[in-house]
Design goal:
Length: 94
Amino acid sequence: MCSINMNSAMRTCVITGANAGIGKSAAHQLADKDWRVIMVCRNLAKAQNVCDIIKNETGNEQVFVMQADMSLTADAFAYDATSPCCLRGCGLCC
Ligand SMILES: NC(=O)c1ccc[n+]([C@@H]2O[C@H](COP(=O)([O-])OP(=O)(O)OC[C@H]3O[C@@H](n4cnc5c(N)ncnc54)[C@H](OP(=O)(O)O)[C@@H]3O)[C@@H](O)[C@H]2O)c1
């Protein structure tokens, strides 16, 4: 799992399902608006590829990938407990 330095005033959003569809679009748009984006995805290879594209296209280096399968209760609770703002594939929680 990656380590992220959160010591800045940068707005941060955790997005599940961020490698495709609505989640990917949200990740791209928030990165473009200079948010720190934490992409929570179950497939690391797919997610890292999308992360690299978002970084290249937005110039925002504060885009990270973390692995979780949200069908697993332990993974889901771990991410909900740590996120200041969380966009899920099925909804929005801030
Ligand atoms: N698209 C629309 O216009 C629209 C409108 C209203 C509501 N919705 C709802 O919004 C949600 C997302 O829609 P979408 O079009 O963005 O779907 P999508 O393109 O299929 O993307 C779904 C994302 O969720 C991830 N995901 C699925 N199961 C997961 C799990 N167990 N753990 C972690 N990640 C998981 C997928 O990862 P993988 O790539 O690994 O599969 C993918 O990144 C759906 O519930 C849909 O019904 C969509």
